[in-house]
Amino acid sequence: MRIDLSFKRLATLLFALFIQVTLAQEVKITGHIFDKAGLPIPGANVVLKGTKVVTQTGFDGEFTINAKEGQTLIISYVGMKTLEIGASKSMKITLQDASNELEAVVVVGYGTQSKKNLTDNIARVTAKDIQQVPVANVQNALVGKLAGVQITQTNGKVDGGINIRVRGAASISAGTQPLYVLDGIPLITDDESSNGAPTNPLLTLSTNEIESIDVLKDASSAAIYGARGANGVVIITTKKGKEGKGTFSINLSQGVSEPTHKRKWLNSKQYVELLQEAGRNAQDLESVEEELEFLSQGTDWRNGQINTDWQDIAFQTGYTTDADFSLSGGDQKTRYFISGAYNNTVGIIDSNDLERLTSRVNLSHKVFDNFTVGMNLSFSRSLINRVQDDNSFSSPLQSVAQSPISPARLEDGSANPNTEYSNYLLAKDNTFWKTIVRRLTGKVFAEYKFLPSLKFNSDFSYDLLSQTEDYWQGKNAPFMATDGAVFASSVNTENYISSNYFTFDKTFAEKHSFNAVIGMEYNNYHRRYQDVNSIYFPNDDFNTIDGGAEVNEGHGSETDYVFVSQFGRLNYAFDNKYLFKASIRRDGSSRFGKNNRFGYFPALSAGWIISNESFLKDNSVLTYLKVKGSWGKLGNAEIGNFASRQLYRPNPYNLKSGLTFDQAGNDNLTWEKSTQIDFGFEAGFLDRITLEVDYYQKDTDGLLFEAPLPISSGAASVNKNIGQIRSNGFEFTLNTKNFDNEKFKWNTSFNLTTNQSKIRSLPNNNADVIAVGSYTINRVGEYISSFFLVEYAGVNSENGDALFFKNTLNPDGTLNKDLTSDYSQARRVIVGNPFPTLMSGMTNTIIYKGFDFTFTFQGEWGASIYNTAGIYQSTAADYYDNQTADQLNRWQNPGDITNVPQARFQKQNGTQESTRYLDKSDFVRLRNLTLGYTLPKQAIKDTGMSSLRLYFTAVNLLTFTNYKGFDPEARRDDGGIGEDFYSAPPARTMALGVNINF
């Protein structure tokens, strides 16, 4: 009995003890999750394996979960490797970066998303891809790094405009540039230049403040921006502070620049020989030699006393100075990022330079556990000394048209006023064009979490672009007849944006993941412009408006528009395999006609992660495979603020005021509509290779055109939505980890894009659209703005006549390819495309011990470029302009085989507009190269620095092309599509720098 009793008591005691231990183990497990740099990770998922118990880390990386010690926790966060670890009290967990590009997080409209679960097509670059590239504008740092995105600076001026085309052209007459969004602020991108050449309004941004740039390329990603997303959306995200020890970084660099290419021109001896020969052949040698006497200004032109290299005078050695700093850090409640940058760029073109100061402060503060507020504020000031547009006779590069026998300056050092054309040195000495651009962008925001899965964001943003221009011309300036003149302008453009939206993000039963956004946005734009002109100055010491005796002209205007929008988006994922997304935006704008004030822009997309299926889940070769597709409708609202309105304009006469009918109204006018589809797949191999392939198609309908009206209507035309175009092509992106170990890493990123942008319908029964004075045509079935020229056929070897193909129509509809020397008998035909049909980029990054080496090659093929200046500079002395060196190969004797006709002064022997001056602009360029060395930590341990890196970097180091002009990317900046007209090449820049971190 005692034994039995004792046994029962013992059993009871053991059972009670077991219960106590079990209950004691069911405690709240707490922990902190950090990245490898020791910074906390907010929003990481913590799952108790085998259960539905799940939680997320807070702002400071801390989590709490009900679990027993020893049970397995699954820790996951996008961009990091998933970790399984046993639970214990007071855990401190470090996550490692994922080895797969597919784990990256991209920024989408009003949120973020893992690229792995993305059904959209978004291209991304991060800070490390664009920092320390010695260019004055952010866009140039992106060249060659994004599939489907073509980025071209108009020419080599430091203030040159930037053209960006996302997946080809989506319009003919409306805007073609993407929408830029900076930290949720749609940026003002108006070109406010008054001198005929565009400026780049995004010069105000500095690369040191940018964390990432995401380009939304397809309709599924861009539809959340509705009527402004048809040309793509560029989302720029600035850097934020992180919790932990404060960091301080300094970057300093100094570089030198030169033109990527200079052309060869005739020297004095060659020029004189050519002009005399041309005069003899035209039986006009006497007048030619009289002009040579004038051009030489009393010097011995027959023996080459003067041999002026005008090209050498127009170009100069450029310099770049960059200095920037950043300070960031924070604690559990407050995070901060503060930065400043200085850039001074002396351009490769004489008298062209830029000086810029930028600053930024980003702050966020956690008021309560579920309530966060913050602000982003930036300011920049850019001072640009500009030169005239390419079609101005006083532009530096037009000086290459001057005769080499003309002195550039007289003996007293003053500019020679007696040159063939206006001597640009007169403009250099007696004029300035100074532009100052100030930009202020700011956002205050608040985020309130009702539940861990439901939050509300309210943002108020402001963008101010303020610009002044001062153009002074002294009494000795070219074409001056009023003892001096001053032009001064001022423009202030403001954009107010209010955004309010809810976000719901939750996973049910571990398989059903929902992410939903719903909200509204109000956008108010206002612009005020004024200018004034003053003349008759007492002397050149007065160069402001009040120094003139007469204020003879002034202008002023105000304009605004409003957007009111509602938007929603739903992402759903089932079992991490089946992905669905739907979005819609409703945009209303004052720009549209009153009968079409509002529009709806829906989008749908879906994806299937096949590699998560059981038959592929454990495959060690094909580690990731996803197919995806999307469809959506977008708009292009860049049609002008009052294109739909019936307008009158003031028209004073004889000091009496009055109004004149100016524009016919169209109450049905609306945005251009773009329907886009995208199909593709993403694959990963061996955790080292990722491949992304996409086919896209953009159909734009309702193109904006001026349709003719009967004369009796009182207006010549009215704006209407007529016409269709289609852009389509393929995109390939391949990322590889060639080597990946602690000592040696080598990664390669390669992208390839094809594009065709063709016209499907036009107004007036599909009639050809040819602008007056243009070399291009818009015709159904052809590329947008195709070159339309007489076809040059070379030289008659018997008599030196220039020949052309007739290209008249035969009775059977074919072209008559007979030759003629009579230009009037030749018919214009479509002969080229101004836009590339194939683009590519390749970036390699190599890291060995402390060394890092990165370089990017970029190439374009399929485009043509028309040298509009060719009819003056490559004409075998038809004019007095200096000639390109290829004119030495002119026809001189019967039997000569050449492409340059006989020199005949002012006889138009082949100098007419034709394909003689049309050339392919195919090229491959070593766009960026950087070589750096980071000193070992042991070497700097006593300096207080955490790292010290020295680097050499270069831009446009090598160019491979057959284009005969200055550069295959340079285009005239005063208008014209695909034309080169004394257009400066880009700069080749090499710089040395140092990056210091504390």
TrEMBL record:
Concerning Gene3D superfamilies, the annotation shows: Carboxypeptidase-like, regulatory domain, TonB-dependent receptor, beta-barrel domain, TonB-dependent receptor, plug domain
Answer yes or no on keyword S-adenosyl-L-methionine: no
- What SUPFAM superfamilies has UniProt attached to this entry? Carboxypeptidase regulatory domain-like, Porins
Where does it localize?
Cell outer membrane
Look up and give the membrane topology term.
Multi-pass membrane protein
Q: Where is the TonB-dependent receptor plug domain?
A: 115-233
Q: Which InterPro entries match?
A: Beta-barrel_TonB_sf, CarboxyPept-like_regulatory, Plug_dom, Plug_dom_sf, TonB-dep_OMP_SusC/RagA, TonB-dep_OMP_SusC/RagA_CS, TonB-dep_rcpt-like
So where does this one cross the membrane?
A: none
Q: Which UniProt keywords apply?
A: Cell outer membrane, Membrane, Receptor, Transmembrane, Transmembrane beta strand, Transport
Q: PROSITE patterns attached here?
A: TONB_DEPENDENT_REC_3
List, alphabetically, the NCBIfam families matched: OMP_RagA_SusC, SusC_RagA_signa
The similarity annotation says: Belongs to the TonB-dependent receptor family.
Protein name according to UniProt: TonB-dependent receptor
Which organism does this sequence originate in? Answer: Flavobacterium cupriresistens
What's the source species' lineage?
Answer: Bacteria, Pseudomonadati, Bacteroidota, Flavobacteriia, Flavobacteriales
